[in-house]
Specification:
about 170 residues, alpha+beta, single chain, 7-stranded mixed β-sheet, globular, two-stranded antiparallel sheet, 3 helices
Length: about 170
């Protein structure tokens, strides 16, 4: 199934552009939309905290390392997890390109007894999905088919036709 990288205009700002992944046949919903839809009813405070953090990054702070847990994927692939507040249980995966660009994936509930995403089927699915997407994007960047502009905007071929089998 194909997908495209789409800007989340409600969140993007002058300090950080925020994008997500929209699969063909999903009516325009992104992985981040899916995350919000699944988590909002049971974890409204955490979803609001995540939204506020992302809005701060976009409008004021940029995607600084202090907001993320690094090395959630393969070495050098930029896959991160948004750091949670003490007592919060949601994990949101993303691809971070410096402080100016963040591509949001999905995630889910992380039970406190689970030590690593590899030990939870749902988290593993979402983490591996964003790893695969990161590899595809990295290849396009290397081939100069995608360019990251100084302001975090993506330019180039943002549509991937059937290159991943997730979703």
């Amino acid at each position: 199934m194909g997908f495209r990288i789409v800007e989340i205009e409600d969140l993007s700002g002058p300090y950080c552009k925020l994008y997500s992944i929209a699969y063909d046949g999903k009516g325009g919903d992104t992985l981040f939309d899916d995350f919000l839809d699944r988590m909002d009813e049971d974890y409204p405070d955490e979803v609001e905290d995540i939204w506020n953090k992302l809005q701060f990054m976009a409008d004021e702070g940029g995607a600084r390392l202090q907001f993320f847990r690094e090395n959630e994927g393969l070495p050098g692939d930029g896959v991160v997890a948004l750091l949670k507040e003490s007592g919060f249980t949601l994990r949101l995966y993303a691809i971070r390109y410096g402080t100016v660009l963040l591509i949001l994936g999905s995630g889910g509930y992380k039970d406190p007894s689970v030590k690593a995403w590899q030990d939870d089927e749902i988290l593993r699915t979402h983490a591996l999905e964003i790893e695969k997407i990161s590899a595809l994007i990295t290849e396009r960047i290397k081939n100069r088919d995608i360019k990251i502009c100084d302001d975090g905007t993506l330019e180039g071929d943002l549509y991937f036709d059937g290159e991943t089998n997730n979703q």
